Amino acid sequence: MKDTKIQTLHPDADKINKLISLEKYEVIRSAILDILQKGPLSHTDLMEAIHQHIHGHFSGNAQWYGETVKLDLEARNVIQRSKAKPPLYSLVSIG
């Protein structure tokens, strides 16, 4: 059976992000949303939290997929990157 793919987006409209497995996308997306519901995190802390969240039940490079899906969620306006130093990632407020 052929693996279903998703074309991920990039926050910079001039860049093309990766075509990845939809199944892996959904695992990482769910992890990021669960993690950021607890509050904003730096890039380093977010990547570490993703690794801890999926460790043991994800085949693939958690950091690579984490970065790819993080960029996609930024482009889709699901999460946002602050202008603080260091930048913090958080869920976009609705309303």
UniProtKB/TrEMBL annotation:
This is HTH HARE-type domain-containing protein.
